[in-house]
Every structure is written in C-alpha cells, then in structure tokens.
Amino acid sequence: LPGHESAEVSWDIQSHIEQAMLDKQPLIVCMMDYWKYFDAMEPNFVRDFMVAIGIDPDYAAIVHDIYTNSKRYIKIGRTFGKAFTSSNGSGQGDVYSILAAVALVSVQFAFIQSRYPKLKMGSCVDDRNIRGDFQTVVQAFGEMAQYDKLAGHFNNVSKLVMTATDKEGRKLIQQHNFGTTQEPEYANYFSIDKNVGDYINTTQHNATCQVEKRMKYAIAAAIRSSKCPASQALKSKGVATLAIPRMLQGTQWSIPSSKSI
Fold first, then answer.
1. Which residues of the chain have pLDDT under 70?
2. Which residue, among 4, 36, 28, has the nearest Cα to 123 in the 3D structure?
3. Is 237 within 8 Å of 231 (Cβ atoms)?
4. Is the dihedral angle over the CA atoms 173, 179, 183, 189 positive or is it negative?
C-alpha cells in the first residue's frame, strides 16, 4: 500500500496496548499463524478467487497452468531428484501469489469486521492479529478458523500467542481451550513477543532483554561483514544494509543498556 510499511502492524498493536493501559481498560491481543500458508494454496481455488476479485481470467489461467503442469525437482548438492508435479503451493517470491495471499486475508477481515465492528485487526500478509475484549476475540478467532478451513488453510494453534493488559485477561487466556476435549490446545501467553520484527511489550518496563539479543546479533553481523574477503566499499555496504537495519528494527520501543553499545 502506498505510504505504508509492514512495521506499522506492530506499531498499531503496541500503541493499542499502551492506550488501553493508560485508560485502565482490559484488552486482549491475539496473534495468529497459518500452517504453511503459501504451501497450502490450492491452484483451482486461487484461480477462481482471483477471477472473482477482478483479475483478468486469461492471466489467472496462465498462472494456474504454470503451477499445475510445471515439473519440479529437489536438488541436494549437485544432485537432482526425479521430476514431479505438485497439487498445492504458490511461490512466495511471485507477485501474483502475494496479491492472492493479501486479498484472501483482506476479504476475511472485511467479513469479520462486519460481524464484530469494535474488533481491531491488523496483518502483514499472513501474520494476523485481532484485538478486543476476550469474548469477542475468541468468537472472531473461531469464525476466522472456519473461513480458513473453507479456503483450504489451517491455523497453527501451537504458534497461537495471546496477551492481556490485566490479570483477569491473562487468567482467561491460560484457561481457555482452543482445541477439543480429546485434544486440548491452549494459546501461548506472552508479555514480550516479536511481531513483524519488532517487540510487543505488555509490561510497564523496557523490554531490555530482547533488545540486548537484537544488539548482539547486529554487532556480530557487523563483525562478520568487516572480516569478509571483500573491498572496503562492499564491507561498508554490508554493514549499512544488514547490520544497522537489524539493530534499528528491534529497538523501536526500548533503548539497549550501555553494555551493548
């Protein structure tokens, strides 16, 4: 989207959390993860869906033909396996695949928003989050799971993470079973977690421990870049494009301690 960036997803979550804490209002945040989102894209469904939202039918048919008839190989070292065709999956570097992935989530959000007007939502492709009171979040999650299933996708409940701004909310999260009686599944509660590269923090102190990890990671990357067998200009470019962005992305909300600088 023009004028926007992926980091806004985490900024929206963090600002919503901090406003709720200032207003002393209970807030539940639920961050969901698809099970192999792009790998589960079914070609026939994607073709029909894209045509339904206005994509040229000939374009959709060409992409469908490529995905259903292309021969694929698995390469290990210099050895190729036998050729095979696949029944599912879209390439993550393909603009068409990204458009389909974003559109599918956008349609889902429009449906859920019509059902729960007070619910706040955000996503960066398949990294989705919903925010509101506990009952609304749980009901919306259930309907989103049904939508996903009808579209050929599933939520990875083992990676479902939730947090709350109050003690009662934390208790409800830890007690709620998102699975079945025979196979119970519970959300992972967090007070500090990562979303689209930035840290989400529901505590009233700096998330220094996570920033320390990011700083150490960035410093190690800078050292590797400075020691690689390349020209000084290329080394400087490596630090500027790899180490510094990695350092800045994880230090939006908290400043690292002096021992990391």
1. 1, 197, 205-207, 209-210, 249-261
2. 4
3. no
4. negative
